[in-house]
Amino acid sequence: MICSKYFSNFLVKQNFTPSKLYQISLTRNSSMTAKSVELNSFSRRKKSNTDIGWILLVLPISAFGLGTWQVRRKIWKESLIQELKTKTKFPALDFPENEEELKTLEYRRIKVVGEFDHSKELYLGPRSCLTDGGAENSNGLFSGSTKSGYYVITPFKLSNKPYTILVNRGWVSMQNKNPASRSSGQVAGEIELEGVVRLTEPRPQFVSKNVADSRFWAYRDLEAMSKLVDSEPIMIDAVVECSIPGGPIGGQTNISLRNEHVSYIITWYGLAIATGYMWYAKYSHALRSIIK
To answer: What's CA 239's distance to the chain center, in Å?
Structure first.
């Protein structure tokens, strides 16, 4: 009783009323609740940032994977180019008895004997003159010389077969496109030559359509070309050894495939390093806290 009386007197002296005591209690409870909410919110934000960090880790990992894929593509492409180059150097085969076999002999050399019909020349281009199949510059924007010209496609009547084929005699400059300007190279009579088997090709992207009745062609469409000159849809590229002085330059078989994988490798690995560093700089503290 005495303690209760002294405590009541103390509250009166301090001007503490019951309502004021209630307000103090409410304020303290509100403060504790606010701090609890703030801590929970901070915890949620921290967890959310960590989750986003793991998602963003996909960027450097994906870039690294694409860079590695381009390394493999580069190895495959260089192997394919070397394979094509080797094929064109194999000893020449005799012209097969069944012309359907030619579909399996692309890039192989064959021997033919016959006579050119220069009156039906066709022109494929514009093209640049290739050196060694253009393989020397297969990583660049151009293969061989950047000087523009045309491939001369001439019907060739076989002596030991009852039909005519097409022969890409080689490259001539724009100035020598007219046969009259290279009359010394318009060989007459029966000759023997070697050529690399070529098949028809689909229309390349961004290349204009061929005009069926024209002597100028943008890409190799053997069916349409053969109809125009009344020959079989068979073509060979004359090898460089069969070039005739004053005539087209042979050896224009393009074996240089587009090979820009080095730039792709640099791009993807560079992106992997950059995004990986940014991820580590931002989320390494979270990673360390998980490890601990």
So the answer is: 29
Pairing of strands 109-116, 93-94: parallel
Burial environment of residue 207 by CB neighbours within 10 A (0 to 12, 13 to 18, 19 or more): exposed
| SS3 (DSSP) at 217 | strand
pTM greater than the 0.85 cutoff = no
Per DSSP (E only), the strands in 29-108 are: 93-94
- What's the pLDDT at 284? 72
Query: Is 126 in a helix, a strand, or coil?
Result: strand
- The widest CA-to-CA distance across the chain, in whole angstroms, is 142
Q: Which amino acid is at 50?
A: T
Kindly report, residue by residue over 148-176, the tens digit of the pLDDT. 899 999 999 999 889 899 999 999 999 99
Of residues 146, 57, 157, 76, the one with CA closest to residue 113: 157
Measured from the Cβ of residue 83, the count of other Cβ atoms closer than 10 Å reads 11
